Structures are given as structure tokens and as C-alpha cells.
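Thread: quick sanity check before group meeting

JM: Hey all, I'm pulling together slides for Thursday and realized we never actually wrote out the predicted structure for the chain we discussed last week. Dropping the sequence here so it's in one place. If anyone has concerns about the input, flag it before I start.
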Amino acid sequence: MNKTRLQQLEQLLDAPVLPRVMTAAEWEREGGKRNPEVGDTLVNPEGVRIIARVNGSEIHVLETAAKLTPLEERLLSYVLQNNNAKPQTASTDLERQARRLGEWIQQSVTAGEWRAEVPDRMELRNRLFDGMVPFLLSCEQVEDKEPTYTELEKTIRTFISDETLLIPLREHEWLVLSTDRVLTEAEAESDEVLGHEETKEVLASLAEGLHQLVTGEWGGECHIAVGEPIVPSENVVRIVGTLRETIFLGRKFHVGMQVHLPWLVHLERLLSGIPELVRSRFVEEMMGRPDLFTDSETITTLDAFFSMDCNVSETAKKLYIHRNTLLYRLDKIKHEAGLDVRSFNDAVLVRILLLLYKVTKRK
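JM (edit): ok, ran it. Output follows.
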């Protein structure tokens, strides 16, 4: 649900409405039914939770403290169900073919058929070349600026390549497949062949540029994940599942980040599988001071320190502070938490604690 509709709903209910992303397992643990659907509700002492969208195992929930009558719950459920059932029609042969392929991908992901190969009956199969670069866009534009398939495809082609394929998957979600020409063009700017790490840097830069292009053109909230080159006829289902999980983990552990990279969320993937109760207990037991991570300066410092591979000089440059100022902050963390992030073992532990704190504090 975009911001405009969210504001309208808040006005109708006369209470704040907060969007939240959950897993199906979390929904069930909190009392929801096993196979959640759009419109399902949970009532607790704090208010009501209602499902606005279901994307596989990912559930988009609206939370409000408003006390709804049974009739209001049913009406809201009806509106959300109709919003998700909005029909989509193809205006060109390419769009029709892309939507057909997207429906097959979605069905395969839902069924857990990660190794499924694109069947010969799909018209676009002969346009799936080895080594294509996958981007997953999850965007909710401002209501009056929602792009059509043709508009979005034309815009993306101006940025990446004429060989790019745009494949609609779900509402507000698209898979973009580009030939590896985008990488060879970057390689041409250098005298050396791109290595593995250099390729990742190029992919991250392309994702950043694509994000700026889409949000600059249509606004709204947009999240993008990019993967390394694949053989799409064999691996498209697996990569869609991987990139969806990457965006989910990025939104869960790194609020405010819009570009997500699979190779940077390995630890987050591991931590996400730990039950919430265990995560919360671990944070409480290990924290020297429960309020340590409530200080925005501490969080900013640690985020920068870890992003710069624990390099003091580079972190100081990134934060635009003197090296001694950074050392003072790190010593303060050591004194208050009993953990020295300049030590490998302590740095690993603080990194884990920081990630867990970020997700548990929003519960």
C-alpha cells in the first residue's frame, strides 16, 4: 500500500497505521492461521493487524491501534482483497509474453521448484542468453505516477541495454534481465579484465543507478536487489527466490537501505532463522548496557566501522571525523559494553548484537 492510501486509511480510522513485513512463520506463531491470505486479521490488546499483501512466505501487514468493529474489519478486508485482485492486461505481444513467463516463475517459486527450467512453450525462452544479469525491483510508486509496463521498459532500456527483458512477477515487482554487455562495457574502461570483486562493485553501481532512475522518474518507495550473471533458462526461479530473500533481509535488518546485495547479507540470513525469543534473550544477556544501541552516534559509528572492514583510518574519513575522535568513541563502547571492536572476536559479537538489536527493537 503506497503512502497516499496509507494516509487516507489513517484519516478514516483516526489512528496511526504502520506497515510491517513478517514471515508466514512469524504470523502463525503470533496466532494467525497456517496459510495466511490477504484480509486476514489478528486482534491483540494493542490493536489490530491485517494482511495487505502476501508474497510467498513474506507477509505485508498493516498495524493500527484503532479498535475496529467486526463490520469495519470485514470492510477493510474486502478493500484489501479487491486491491490485490486488480486485473492487469497486456498492451503488446512482448508484454503478454513477459507476463506469461512471470506467471510461470511465480508459480514455480511458490511451489518451491528452485531448479525448474524455463519450458520450451515460453516464447521468451529464445531470448534468455547465458550470462544475463538479474535485477529485482520491488517498487510502490505514488498512486498517480504508477508506470505502465511499456513506460517502465522504455526507461530501463535507456539505462542498461537494448537486450534487456522486463518480466512482471507480482504487483509492484519486476525482474529485469540484462545481457552481460553491461559488465563488458565497464571492463572496456579498464585495461584489465574484471575480477570477482570488481564485478560485484560494478553490479552494485548499476543497481544504485537503476534505483535513482526509477525513483527519480516516478518517486515512491523502491527496493532493488542484483545478482551475479546467471543462465536464466536454468536458474531464473532460484535467482528470483534469492533476490526476494535479499530484499526481505535488507528491509528487516537495514532500515533505510534501498539497494540490496546478496553477498552482503549472509550473516543476516543466518540470524533471521533464529526464533525471535532466542534472539531477544541473547541480546539481553550479552549487552553490558541495555541502552547502548539507543545512541544514534554509536550505531552510526559501528555501521561505518564494519562497512570499512574495521579500518580505523578509513572509518574516520567516512564519518568526516578525526582519527582520535573515532578512537575515543571505540574506547567508550569498550568501557560501556565490555567489548573491544578492534579485537576480531569482539567485533564479530558486536556485529551480531547490532543486527539483532536493529530487528528486535522494532517488535
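AS: nice. Residues 196-218 form the longest helix (23 residues). Residues 93-264 form a domain with the Alpha-Beta Plaits fold (CATH 3.30.70.270).
JM: adding both to the slides.
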